[in-house]
Structure prediction request, 525 residues.
Amino acid sequence: MIRLENVTKSYSTEIVAVKDASFDVAKGEFVFLVGPSGSGKSTLLRMLNRQDRPERGAVWVAGRNIVDLPSGRIPMLRRNIGNIFQDYKLLLEKNVFENVAFAQEVIGRPQHVIRQQVPAVLDLVGLAGKEERLPNQLSGGEQQRVSIARAFVNRPLILLADEPTGNLDPATGEGIMRLLDRINKTGTTIVMATHDQRIVNTMRKRVIQLDRGIIVRDQARGVYE
Amino acid sequence: MFSRTRYVFRETFDSFRRNATLTIASIITAAISLLGVGLTLLSQEGFDNLLSKWEGGVEMIIFMRPDVTDDQRALIESSLDQNNQFIESWTYCDVDCSLAERDRVLAAEPGVKDLLNADNIPTQYKAVPTEATDVQLLRQVSEAFSEGPGVFEVVFAEDQISLIEQLQSFFGFRLFLLSGFLLLAAILLIWNTIRTAIFARRREIEVMKLVGATDWFIRVPFMLEGLLHGVIGGALASLGLGIWNSQWTSGVQGFPPNSGFASLVVTSGYDKTVMLYMLIIGAVAGAIGSGIAASRFLDV
Ligand SMILES: Nc1ncnc2c1ncn2[C@@H]1O[C@H](COP(=O)(O)OP(=O)(O)O)[C@@H](O)[C@H]1O
Ligand SMILES: [Mg+2]
Prediction:
């Protein structure tokens, strides 16, 4: 599903964010990217949906090298990839339903599909009954659930999560992890950047560890070190 | 497709509402500049009307009496031909031609216009002098013609044209320059309004890009917004021009007859053409302003 071949990305001559990274992620896998702040986790995720481009190496996603993907084809790539973030990136003046529906509207899904799929995904993430709430009328965990619903409503092949529990207390974070695990079990590949030791150690998934842009460990059913 | 159209219009009008002050400013600027363009075109057409009898380098007109005979005309024509060292070419404007000219030039002076009819309108010989013939020389040549049989009077361009042309170029150039600057200001304001609108929605745009909206899908509402600014400006300018032209028309009717100003009134549907131009120029200006803003500020 994802393959990196000797990927290097630097922001300037001094700052090499990712250095010669290579790994494979199979369909349906759940992978943690771990490492201290500034080790290149976010940069790596951003190269998977062409928010960033490496200057060397190849990035294969769903069978295509996306490094030289023409910009006109990027939207189609992104329709196969869901994104969630530490700060949720919800639209504050839209309610829960509208936030999720937005992801379908802007790629031209017809209204009848939206009316059917948005309630279903809100049900899946445990927000049934809160459709009319605005983001600031929700807890942090609930807001992250809205953002997961938005990322998942178009049934992407891959979900990229950048520190999704970073702003949440441990109990709420665990709830989010159970939800991501459920989504992973539907066959969605998940790559999640985190530096939350507890979460990594309880989930027991594959762990890729970065240190100053270099992959120093790639371990199945790993723990945080 | 329906959902998409609805989305575009919802976004566009949302943006109008949120950005009301800037939107109104750019529409007003667009309207004023387009009105300037329209008035320039209209006044130039008016001056052209006024000058129409001197078209094609005609410098001297010999007006013939309405009761001129064929013999008298033949005499005039042969002396025009004989004077070919002074007169390059000439044309005869017969009764129909003169009536047509009357309709154009006296459009706003119906009283005077109706006094001239097929039986009493003077026909005209319009003469183009050779390069070497200056006005003084032409005047001497004309002495002979004004004495000629069947001649009503001889008129020189020099006396009438220069003032009109001075006025035309004075107003034309300055109005045009002014409206050009205003149009540039309108484009910049539309550009700035759209840029602000894009900035105000940067979170939405970020999300749209992440979920795979196409660039065009993101751009179209903004471009439509700018286009609408221009078109609304053009519509307001058309309204202003319509009011201006009707007031001018009634104002001119109060001027002394034959003062010449009457031909400055533009009828014949040219005012409608100018309105159409203003709408088109407005749309183009709006599209340029918003197009540049949308392509510059929506890049990934
Ligand atoms: N847009 C950017 N411009 C310049 N440097 C950046 C940019 N984004 C990240 N970096 C640098 O790249 C390195 C890796 O950053 P990042 O991928 O955000 O790490 P992490 O997500 O692991 O904290 C850091 O040194 C960071 O300062
Ligand atoms: Mg990061």
